[in-house]
Specification:
The chain is α+β, with helices and mostly antiparallel strands. The chain folds into two domains: 49 residues, no CATH class; 295 residues, Creatinase/methionine aminopeptidase superfamily (Creatine Amidinohydrolase). It is built from eleven helices and twelve strands. It starts with 12 loop residues before the first helix and ends in a 24-residue tail after the last helix. InterPro entries: Creatin/AminoP/Spt16_N, Creatinase/aminopeptidase-like, Pept_M24, X-Pro_dipept-like.
Length: 388
Amino acid sequence: MYRVDFVFYVDDLAQVLRCQFSEHGEPLLFLLYGKNTDSGNYSKPASFEGIEKFDTDLSTLHPILTECRVIKSDMELAFIQYANDVSSKAHIEVMRQIKPGMKEFQLESIFIHHASMHEGCRHCSYTCICATGHNSSTLHYGHAGAPNDQTLNDGDMALMDMGAEYNFYGSDITCSYPINGKFKRNQTIVYNAILRAHNDVISHMQPGVRWIDMHKLAEQRILESLKKENIIHGDIGDMMNQRLGAVFMPHGLGHLLGIDTHDPGGYPKGLERPKEPGLRSLRTIRELKEGMVITVEPGCYFIGTLLRHAKDDPISSKFFNWEKIEMYKSFGGVRIESNLYVTAQGCKNLTNCPRETWEIEAVMAGAPWPSRDDCSSATTTKNGLPKT
């Protein structure tokens, strides 16, 4: 399974390295050491008693292995697809069981139970984010300081960001929907703005496309939708130049996915992280390559601190309809996240969750949702979702 050629005791490591690999002189040991550009942490190089007697190389291995992780093999893709299938089903199970009066941690429990009990995924890729109401404007809600403990209120939105892990390979899926199963008009407005951004990005993805351009496309679509509803006003180009999109979407559009939820390789040598608001949060600005797996996760949030900063800025402030903004101050946020595999001609959506508002309402009311196996021979929409 692991394709191991030799097995020895660790105590004998120095001796074995000399005996097995000294045919052409003293062996050179390549050690894994380098910076993870996503976390900012450095990997810890291997060490053993007697290593100081060997020649070592700390710079060669890390960028090579990192790049190997960027492009997925068929086996890796199969693991990620299975994790997505499991997570999609578990998300739907949460949709079916959610109701006002529950606790957020109960939604986390439903997801974990389904993934483990029915699908054999014993671990999650990351701490579950089960944010409802105003909590959904906290991007990484669910940690120890905000532990998914709020009571669900009738009429609020739920933002569920959860992913199961299989054989160490992760998934990362977010679904947003009303707790009571019926979208209100203001919820529909924000949700459809994000859905449009999500779908348009997916339709543009193919090898050679720059990820920073996809982020800007998502920002533009969100701003266009908000302008249509008179939440903001003015020229979209001027808003983009002013980086207004970062007020509503302060995070990056997505990240590489694999063994780590935020897989390494986002900034290889020669690529510098942008400095502008929103863009500096991008976990990669690479051109897409065939074989990559990357998340697409646009969002729109009404975050008090960011809105106050925008209101205090004389240039940014003029773009906002502050009377309308006031109506959304306790809204929270919406995020839609799918996992995409970049193909030679475009991309494949590995995630299979209801996305249209009518699909979500139907599933929450008890309507069936076809699994990927059920819809493999059925007609699909442009972004790979089943037509029901």
